[in-house]
Amino acid sequence: MIALLSTPTAFEFRFESVSIGTRKSPLAIKQAEMIAAAIELNTLGTTTTLVPLDSEGDQNLRRDVPLAQAGVDFTTLIDAAVLERVCDVGVHSLKDVPPTSRWNPGLVIACHLPRASPLDVLVGAESLAALPPNARVGTASVRRQAQLRAARPDLELVNVRGSVGARLAQLDAGDVDALCLAAAGVARLGESAIAGRANGILPPEVMLPGAGQGIICATCRVGADEMRLLRAADDPDAHVAAAAERSLLDAVDGLSPWTGRPPVGTLMERGDGGGWTLRGLVARPDGAEVVRVEKTAAADCDPAEAAALGREAGEELVALAGVDFLHH
């Protein structure tokens, strides 16, 4: 599969062809194409092929319960395809990748593309305040539901799932008054996706995103030759942010004293001065209680330091929430 160049190049290797596993939705295909473009740009002479696959979450689509309660999994079958060499590389929205303790140790996240907006967008109204009393808002994310309930307890939350296009169709049909979506996903589909609809970004003070939201990542087998070409396309800032946010998620997941797991939000971002700020929260699913932490790091923070900061923040969240957090 790999042909060494007779004359050394910047990377000293060339892949003749790399196959990329992806879900079949329009957004997933778009994201896989972005990984393919990054690979071809950073590795001379390489061609890529997309391998569309059905994820378990796509095959077992239940629309009546939140994603977490349904046990929806958008990554396992693609990861299995990589491990079984059906494809060389898998592509995911990083927010869909489970905590490390529940992810396959034979895989590695070897590439993070530059981060798009990590925030959520409200489609159907310009802000939460603009929604009428008792408005119906569609989202199947327990993280979004908890924070929406904390901000607007009067809202009726509806489990709306499927592709972005399918969810927008439910908005247009009047099934809901507004939708809560990842801004990055909407942007990748193009402005026409929400053209003519009122919309507004939800600030992190209102809606802290999920770990890794807005980052497209590529996975491969640990030790595989593909690690080198993926590392060549890895974005340093996205890698730092991902390390902090996933470490926070891992800490909450691993240290949780509760039966069940609380909604978790986290965001690591640079400030105007270049330094980093990490925010994190855990919430009760009903939104009645939200616990928050905030940490800072220097501008030259590396992934290892970011991961340590994330673990510290996650440990603090669990301690502040207390053992009875989910049992009030």
Descriptive overview:
This protein folds into 3 domains: 17-113 and 215-234, 3-Layer(aba) Sandwich (D-Maltodextrin-Binding Protein, domain 2); 120-202, D-Maltodextrin-Binding Protein, domain 2 (3-Layer(aba) Sandwich), CATH 3.40.190.10; 239-319, Porphobilinogen deaminase, C-terminal domain (Double Stranded RNA Binding Domain), CATH 3.30.160.40. Helix content is 32%, strand content 22%. The chain has helices at residues 26-42, 56-59, 67-70, 76-83, 142-151, 164-172, 183-189, 226-232, 236-255, 303-321, and strands spanning 17-23, 47-53, 89-93, 107-112, 120-123, 136-138, 156-158, 178-182, 199-202, 216-221, 264-270, 276-283, 290-297. Helix 9 (236-255) packs parallel to helix 10. The protein is globular, with a radius of gyration of 20 Å. Mean pLDDT is 89; it is low at 1-12, 57-63 and 65-72.
Features of this protein?
D-Maltodextrin-Binding Protein, domain 2; alpha/beta; disordered N terminus; Double Stranded RNA Binding Domain; 10 helices; globular; 328 residues
Task: Report the total helices.
Answer: 10
> Which structural category fits the helices and strands?
alpha/beta
The CATH topology of the largest domain is given as D-Maltodextrin-Binding Protein, domain 2
Based on CA atoms alone, the radius of gyration comes out at 20 Å
What would CATH call the homologous superfamily of the largest domain?
Periplasmic binding protein-like II
Helix proportion range? 25-40%
CATH architecture of the largest domain: 3-Layer(aba) Sandwich
Shape: globular
- SSE string: EHEHHHEEEEHEHEHEEHHEEEH
Contiguous low-pLDDT stretches (5 residues minimum) are 1-12, 57-63, 65-72
**CATH class category of the largest domain:** Alpha Beta
Major sheet: order of its strands? 2-1-3-10-4
Give the domain tally.
3
Query: Average pLDDT value?
Result: 89
Quaternary structure of the protein:
single chain
Number of strands: 13
Query: How much of the residues is beta strand, in percent?
Result: 15-25%
Distance from N terminus to C terminus (CA atoms, Å) equals 57 Å
Major beta-sheet overview: 5 strands, mixed
